[in-house]
Each structure stands twice: as structure tokens, then as C-alpha cells.
Amino acid sequence: MKRIIIIALCLLCSIGSASAYQIYLRCPESAQVGLPLNCSVTSNFPAGTPFEFVFYQSSAYTATPVSRQNFTIQENHATIYQSFDTKGLTGGVYKVEVLLSRTDALKMSSDSMTWQLPKLVDRLGDITITSPMSQTFDEALRIEGLITKAGDKGVEIEVRGPDGFVFGPHRIDTKLHIQDGAGAFTHQVNVTKPGDYDVTFTDANGYVGVKTFKVVAAATPVQTTVPMTTLPPTTALTSSPATTQSPLSPLTIIAGFSILGLISVIINKHK
User: pTM, whole model, 2 decimals?
Assistant: First the structure.
């Protein structure tokens, strides 16, 4: 009787193992903020089985989805790769999970791995830019600043603009700051058009981060023209013609003398 029970248990175990499928999610333990987080999934679930890749930002009590992608198991059961963009994220612990339907999840073996907790390391704060983040053509592109603990080991920069690649990757020297061990750098890159320029920094310890500079066209001086004011036509003042006194006519003079003579005759008669 005991032998029969043992055989039955073995059969149940073999049936259980035969009906269980495996799925394994793999992600790196850590990645730099700004670089892709590359994960993969391998599985022997039947071809056509759907699942979802979910990338979460974790906190003490919640997990907020950052990205979701749908996939399907292929006929050849090839490894499925997925890269998650980390640009703009903060450092900390994140969660990547593979989600299956409830029916498929019940068929999954106990040794399957469906979630990972990668850590994002944020080194962007190690970069201090001392040149203007917004520059005009007459000074662009001037890249100056400091990298924490870089010392005199140098830094590699790469510049990409509105049309893609512009400069690098190129290693430039850094000058040691004795006070704090930082490395000071300065470099000039010629650009030909306005727009945003992403500068990627990589030091001896690996990828550091990206800083974005804005290049604008040089301002042209504005010439202000004072409009000419048209005055209304002025009316020339015309002087009144001078009044000329016409001389006395000869007849008037003769008549006057005649009157005077007549008056004198009358006076003499009465004497």
C-alpha cells in the first residue's frame, strides 16, 4: 500500500513539473541615470503567450509605473530584450516586473523569476557647469566646469546637436582642484546653427551624465528711426502795399493861388 502511495505521489510530481512553465527576468543590479536599463526575458511558455514588461519607480510603500511594453513569446523561444530609458530619472531603487495573465501565471513554476529591483545611480550632480547654459554664436559652444573627484585624470566629452553628431567622443584634460579633488575642464566646440546641444561626460569611473546647452542667434542691434514730421505749409505773410500820397495836380495849385488872390483884393477894398 505504501508503495502505491509513493508511486502516486511521484506521478503527481512528474505531472506537476511537466505542466509548469518557466519564465526568467534578468536585469543588472545597477545602472547609471541617463543610460538605458537593459533587461531580458527567457521562457518556455508556448508560442503566442502574451506578457507585459513594466518598469516602476519604487518608494517605501508604492510603485509608480514609468514604462509599459507588451510582448509575445515567439516560436523559437528566443530571448526577448527590452531597454528602459532612464534619462531625467532620479537615483534610487526601481522595479522591473513581468506580468502574465492570471491563467498563465497559474501554470508558472515556483522557480521562475518575474521581478527585479535594479538601482539607478545618479552622477549628474557630480558635474558643475561654470560657462553659460545659454550662449550666442559669438561665444558658442564654450564648455567649462568641474567634475567631482575627477582630479587630473581627464574627461571624455561628446556633443550632439539638432542635426545629430557634432563632436567627439574626445578626451580633454582636467586640472586638479587641490581643495576638493575636483577636475576643472574647459573646451570650445564650433557650432553652425541655433538649438539644443547635449554634452555627454564620461570620466575615469565611467558615465557621468548629460548637460544640455542652448545656442541662440546673436542679437542684432535694432536701429530706431525717428519719423519725419511733415509740417503744414506755411502761408507767407504779405505786407500791405504802402499807401503812397499822390502829388497835387497843377490845376489844384492854380485854383488855390487864385482864391488867395481874390481874398487879398477884397480885404484891400474894405480898408
Answer: 0.65
